[in-house]
Design goal:
This protein has 169 residues and is mainly alpha-helical. It is built from 3 helices and 3 strands. 14% of the residues are buried. Keywords: Membrane, Transmembrane, Transmembrane helix.
Length: 169
């Protein structure tokens, strides 16, 4: 049996320590993803704004987190959709479970799940890269600043005389 089958393998009795840790991580990340998306829906209904961050890097970072959360939940939908079937788990991300028959191999997970999960994670990663680039361009990451001293050089200018007649210069 493939190593990816550890999580989805059905054996009577207690889970060993390794499987228990994997299950805790999977459940915790699923709850986190549900919480993030639920919070986003609540924030949109309260603020009437799609994105909270006004800077480009903040908006891209927010989109990346939302896309990764959506990808993880779609992947977990694939896990749940085959939970009762008897099959061999091939991978967890993207989820793939197969059943061997006399006529070949049948994929038990719906066909749209794997490409959707991969596409969402790729777009999320692209948003992270673009967010990092935007943050560097704006000087928000001091150790990766493109400018030489990373701090704007402020030129001292003498005060300009006022054009207002009632205001002394």
């Amino acid at each position: 049996m493939h190593r990816g089958a550890v999580l989805l393998q059905r054996e009577p009795g207690l889970l060993d320590e390794g499987r228990r840790r994997i299950l805790v991580v999977v459940l915790a990340t699923t709850v986190l993803a549900i919480g993030l998306l639920t919070a986003k829906v609540i924030i949109i209904s309260w603020t009437k704004r799609a994105l909270l961050m006004s800077e480009a890097y903040g908006a891209l970072l927010e989109v990346a987190v939302l896309l990764a959360s959506a990808a993880w939940l779609i992947n977990m939908f694939g896990v749940v959709s085959v939970f009762g079937d008897n099959g061999e788990a091939v991978s967890l991300l993207p989820v793939r479970q197969v059943r061997h028959t006399d006529h070949g191999v049948i994929n038990l997970v719906p066909a749209w799940i794997a490409p959707t999960v991969v596409a969402l994670f790729v777009v999320s990663g692209l948003c992270l890269v673009l967010a990092a680039g935007a943050a560097v361009r704006r000087g928000k990451i001091p150790f990766a600043c493109r400018k030489d001293p990373c701090v704007e050089k402020r030129v001292h200018r003498p005060p300009q005389p006022s054009s207002r007649p009632d205001y002394p210069a």
